[in-house]
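Quick one: structure tokens for this chain, please?
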Amino acid sequence: MSFKKALLFLLCAIALLAASVALYSVRWIAIVSLIGIGVGTLISPVLEMLKRRLKIPKPVSAVLMFFLITGAVAQIIYLVFNIGQTQLAPVVQQLPTLLQKLQFKTQVLLTDYPWFQGNFESLKIGERSIEALSGFMGGIQLGATALGGFFFVLTLALYLATSPQRYLSGFLSLFPAYARPKWEQVFRSAGRHLRKWFFSQLLAMSIVGAATAFGMWLIGVNSWHIIGLLTAALDIVPYFGPLVAGTSACLLALASQPDKIPLLIGIFFLAQQLESNVVIPLIMKGRLELPPIHLMVLMLVLASWFGVLGILVASPLLTVLRTIYLQTYLPRMNQAVEPAPSSAKSTRHKREKAWRAAG
């Protein structure tokens, strides 16, 4: 490697490192902006359909969409707080007593295992659970400050959805002219895959939530409709969402119907098997697949940077990145023959070859 090439490689590495540090310092702005772009990609076809079929101008549709989405989110927040007051408050009040009773019964069952019993007593389950629950409730209150971020995301998404071609053309201007048609095709394909993922996920969430609610109603759980909605909402988070939904359902049933918990766990297990082996294969047939290992690693990385928000963004982000990878990098790597260089590169290559032969 010549000195110039080594120096160029070093400068590129330094520039990449500097860009990574700068991007990490503004990572929250970057992730919120990416969410806004993703939401805008989802909304854009809706505005286009309203313009084509109902002759409603896109700016008017954007304003209507703003009030519609804001109203829907406000209704969801109201329902969540209402559920918290009517359903979770009694559970929280009774939780110390219930946990102490659970610890006492477990100690009675473990009298034949003194070593394990001693370690179990040192855990102080009641105190630890109350501390964890207090931290969780504090996190919910802190999450209320995300309203500003929500309005920023929605505003960015609606601006993008109103004039998608304008912003896409501006971004494509960063690429060489000869590469713009190819990259435009790639980005449009990524948008289509993102929309397919979103609507497939909505369908899967609805089916799993309905199946869980029906199962809870069948075994006589009082809060079957709340558990069904909670399961559907949390199912958007792969792997961890169903676990959180099942744990929350057990807490809801713990205060009034503790005898239903084994059946409740069984219903959740059957619902997840239905999703994994029937719903997902049927819905995702012929569509872009997300490798589980890649998704889990990306979820862990983004969770370490952004918390719960990173977990929510992992699946759609991997959908877009995998589309770009499959349509740009992978075909180039699978070429059996090295592509022919351009005329300028070919002339330079011939000169270098002649210089090496003369040397």
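Confidence is low (pLDDT under 50) at residues 135-140.
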